[in-house]
Specification:
The protein has 221 residues and is α/β, with parallel strands linked by helices. Helix content is 37%, strand content 21%. The protein has eight helices and eight strands, in the order H-H-E-H-H-E-H-H-E-E-E-E-H-E-H-E. An eight-stranded mixed sheet has the order 3-4-5-2-6-7-1-8, with helices on both faces. A hairpin with a 3-residue loop joins strand 3 and strand 4. The protein starts with a helix and ends with a strand.
Length: 221
């Protein structure tokens, strides 16, 4: 467990362009195949982790961080017009997984520092006093429409299925990108265990693993 969270800490720093120590840079190289750490926040990040790697907790913690502290640091609130609500979305593989992620996200707001930010809670949404909301739903491109998305987190994206299409991951990816267009620092994160050598996660791995740029791909050993 300690090793797993140490790995996540290195990826957190790399994700947001924070400097790495020499020891962290070695871990970063092992995970990403890249020799130099990013100096700016990523536009996309794809984390390929095994079972019991803390993926659901991580998805929830990133969503909460970006909707609260990150909303100030990365200027998301400044990009919202009066009456517009920015959304951090966690799209999960199924209803049970969505429920797990939602409970993790809700638990963060039991902490006194964050409790005052929670304005209203519904079955799948946490509305915040800062004009943002965290939505946790199943993977469905219809949930993206009509929203201003500041961050989308694809939980277990390699395992998404839809009876109406063979590529729900790619279709949802294509749907969410336009919803981010008015937010220059919008972030898209995929977190998943590996599954097959095809689909969105595989495409991102083959295109960007070990490559410099603003798409960060990491693969646990």
């Amino acid at each position: 467990e300690a090793e797993s969270w140490g790995t996540w800490r290195v990826l957190d720093k790399a994700l947001f362009g924070q400097p790495l120590t020499a020891g962290e840079l070695r871990i970063f190289h092992e995970l990403t195949g890249r020799d130099e750490a990013p100096t700016e926040p990523a536009k996309e990040a794809w984390f390929i982790m095994g079972r019991r790697g803390g993926k659901d907790v991580k998805a929830a913690s990133l969503a909460v961080y970006i909707a609260t502290i990150g909303a100030e640091l990365y200027g998301y609130r400044k990009r919202l017009v009066r009456g517009e609500r920015g959304v951090v979305q966690i799209l999960a593989v199924d209803r049970d997984q969505a429920g797990v992620c939602f409970r993790y996200a809700r638990a963060f707001f039991d902490q006194p520092m964050l409790a005052k930010l929670l304005k209203r809670e519904t079955a799948d949404t946490l509305e915040l006093t800062n004009g943002l909301a965290i939505e946790v739903t199943t993977a469905d491109r219809r949930r993206v429409r009509g929203r201003t998305v500041v961050c989308a987190i694809f939980d277990e994206v390699a395992h998404w299925k839809d009876e109406n299409t063979s590529n729900p991951d790619i279709e949802i990816y294509r749907s969410v990108k336009p919803a981010m267009i008015t937010i220059p620092n919008a972030l898209l994160i995929g977190i998943s265990s590996p599954h097959m050598r095809k689909g969105l996660l595989w495409d991102k791995f083959t295109q960007h693993y070990g490559q410099p740029g603003n798409v960060l791909v990491a693969k646990a050993t």
